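Weekly structure sync, notes
Attendees: PL (lead), two postdocs, one rotation student
Agenda item 3: pending single-chain targets
PL asked that the sequence for the first pending target be pasted directly into the notes so everyone works from the same version. It is reproduced below exactly as submitted, 359 residues in total.
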Amino acid sequence: MGGNMLILKILSMLCLCCLTTFVYAEENYEPNNDADSATWFYINDFPQKHKFDYQGDEDWFLFFAVKGLPFTIKIDDASVGNGINPSIEVYNTDGLLEREHNIGFIGEGEESYWSGGVPFTGYYFLRVHNVEPVFSADSNYTLSIFIPEGPGNGVIQGIVKDQCTSKSIAKAQVRSLLIEADVRTDYIIDQSFSYQSGDYGLVLDPGSYQVEVFFPGYHRKSKDVEVLEFDTIPLSFELEPEQGCNPGGQAIDIETLKNESAGFFDESTLQLELKEVNVSENFFSVQLQLLNDGNLQLLSAQSVPSPTLKNPALYDFQTQIVEVPQVFAFNKFFSLKLVKQSDDWVFGINELLELDINK
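Predicted structure, written out during the meeting:
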């Protein structure tokens, strides 16, 4: 029973992500209620719109800061809803509190800033929460992090991924080397590391740079880029493994795996499509609707006269269990087991396991 509850909790978290994105399309940042689900924020990037969804809600952000380069965290007064009294806290990646500041206003008021620096170059978490005890539905705010002084810095930002699997690479070293008079130098201007999501960011003065990325077990890769004042430059990297993509030398084709999957979850409609279900050697295409309680309701079932999938889903009349060997959902692949709960064809989640597509 405990295992089933854990699986249901995992599914609920996935569904919450989907539902929140569907309802709050303007923000599109939830869930970011703790450090593990923190929203990435680049210094000098565009402001982000957020809101507190319930009493006690809090928002977490992750950013990269450089020692000796002060920055400002700002919540714009024109964006703040009635009843909000935001407080901010900055933590290092070890969970230690580095800075704390109560913005100190309720409703509209003065524009609110916090300026300062960090003791070490690296990643930091920002926690924003509402200290006003009474929750208000008008709970929006706009957050920005920027460098207020010096030349108009530009920002290089991107993601580091595995070329073969498209999976993010964490802790890849990213550094920028100055190019002077079209001559590449060994002078490192700034360096960073990709986070667990593969994201990285570099804040640089205007100029010409060579951005270089490397990680053990992969071939080094570099690109030249021109940084302009107040410019944000997308620059992502796909690193090739030194041993190649896999023993066969062929990269894994994600689209092929999706097409071969027995199931597909549509995040916009919250419907699960089982393309082929084997029911006593009769095959059906099935549509199920995700319900608020995390169960799935049968919507339709149509006969498939000529099945093509190598590994279709299987329904066992005796156990009333549907086994789905591979489902594509939330940009990942899962195996899934559903158990029939009632005569009106409502199914509960019995097992949900993420698959390693590299095996």
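Discussion points:
- Residues 254-354 form one domain.
- The chain has three domains: 32-146, 154-239, 254-354.
Action: rotation student to compare against the earlier draft before next sync.
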